[in-house]
């Protein structure tokens, strides 16, 4: 990143990437807008600490994923505080807002919502890997850079994620019969 | 990606890219301005810390001094009681 690059330029270049990743991760317009704002605020604050040995795109991806996870954790904490989730519940499942994804075509809405709900049940690193690979179509090398893992680790993460998802799909199909 | 995966992720592949609302950047700018207004400068923070340290130190010293004085008086009283020392100038009971 050029040190003189203003936040407006970074926004112009990356707003689509950030907003769409937030939408795919949180599946709600309002939540995605809120997190997108937080992402650019973080970029503004950490701009000087950015090391140009990783690409700006990778850095933006990393901040976005982290902000989405923080948002979901904060939401879970809020609900727990409201006694909707018992204190002893340490499961990784987060609570998501109502499904509201403008990028999903109406005719695919039900199927996509169902699939995304199953992806939401995966551990957070598996969910991240699947979204980056399948929806954002990043290479394994790029995913490794974003997630701070080795390419081998990403490979096995994706394979575990796919197997888990396959199981969940079979289970849900079994339940529907 | 093999055909099985293609089938599994068919729906995800159809997700369209969306453009964020045109007001989003102005909201971000407002957040940045708020952040800048709420941020305390490093020099102010240092000055406040120094004042706080000075206050705590002087307070501790004062309390210590006070405690020493109380301790000395208490010791003197104990001594007077133990040896039954007469603090008045009167030598004999009338």
Give a structural overview.
The complex is a heterodimer of chains A (177) and B (94). Chain A is an all-alpha fold. Chain A contains seven helices and no strands. Chain A has helices at residues 7-26, 29-46, 56-81, 109-120, 124-135, 140-147, 151-176. In chain A, helix 2 (29-46) packs across helix 3 (56-81) and helix 5 crosses helix 7 (151-176). With 94 residues, chain B is mainly alpha-helical. Chain B contains four helices and no strands. Chain B starts with a helix and ends in an 11-residue tail after the last helix. Helices cover 71% and strands 0% of the residues of chain B. At the A-B interface, helix 1, helix 2, helix 4 and helix 7 of A face helix 2 and helix 3 of B.
Provide a concise account of the structure shown.
The complex is a heterodimer of chains A (177) and B (94). Chain A has seven helices and no strands.
Q: Number of helix segments of chain B? A: 4
According to DSSP, the number of beta strands of chain A is: 0
Q: Tell me the radius of gyration of chain B.
A: 39 Å
Q: Name the overall outline of chain A.
A: globular
Rg estimate of chain A, integer Å: 17 Å
Number of H/I helices of chain A: 7
Estimate the strand proportion of chain B: under 5%
**What string gives the helices and strands of chain B in order?**
HHHH
Strand content of chain A: under 5%
The most extensive interface, with participating residues per chain, is: A-B, 33 and 21 residues
Low-confidence stretches of chain B: none
Report the end-to-end length of chain B measured between terminal Cα atoms.
Answer: 116 Å
Mean pLDDT of chain A: 87
Low-confidence stretches of chain A: none
What is the overall pLDDT average of chain B? 85
Characterize the largest beta sheet of chain B: strand count, sense, and whether it forms a barrel: none
Largest sheet of chain A: none
Overall morphology of chain B: elongated
């Amino acid at each position: 990143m050029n040190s003189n690059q203003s936040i407006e330029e970074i926004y112009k270049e990356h707003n689509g990437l950030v907003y769409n990743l937030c939408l795919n991760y949180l599946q709600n317009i309002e939540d995605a807008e809120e997190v997108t704002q937080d992402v650019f605020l973080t970029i503004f604050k950490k701009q000087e600490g950015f090391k140009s040995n990783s690409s700006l795109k990778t850095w933006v991806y990393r901040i976005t994923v982290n902000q989405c996870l923080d948002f979901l954790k904060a939401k879970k904490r809020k609900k727990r505080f409201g006694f909707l989730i018992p204190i002893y519940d340490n499961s990784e499942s987060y609570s998501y807002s109502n499904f509201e994804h403008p990028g999903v075509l109406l005719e695919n809405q039900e199927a996509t919502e169902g699939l995304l709900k199953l992806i939401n049940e995966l551990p957070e690193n598996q969910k991240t890997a699947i979204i980056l690979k399948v929806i954002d179509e990043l290479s394994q090398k790029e995913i490794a850079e974003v997630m701070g893992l080795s390419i081998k680790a990403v490979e096995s993460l994706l394979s575990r994620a796919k197997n888990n998802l396959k199981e969940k799909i079979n289970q849900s199909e079994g339940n529907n019969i | 990606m093999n055909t099985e995966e293609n089938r599994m992720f068919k729906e995800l592949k159809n997700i369209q890219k969306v453009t964020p609302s045109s007001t989003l950047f102005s909201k971000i700018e407002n957040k940045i301005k708020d952040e800048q207004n709420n941020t305390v400068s490093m020099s102010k923070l240092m000055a406040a810390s120094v004042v706080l340290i000075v206050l705590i130190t002087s307070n501790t010293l004062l309390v210590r001094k006070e405690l020493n004085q109380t301790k000395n008086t208490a010791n003197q009283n104990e001594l007077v009681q133990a040896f039954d020392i007469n603090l008045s100038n009167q030598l004999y009971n009338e």
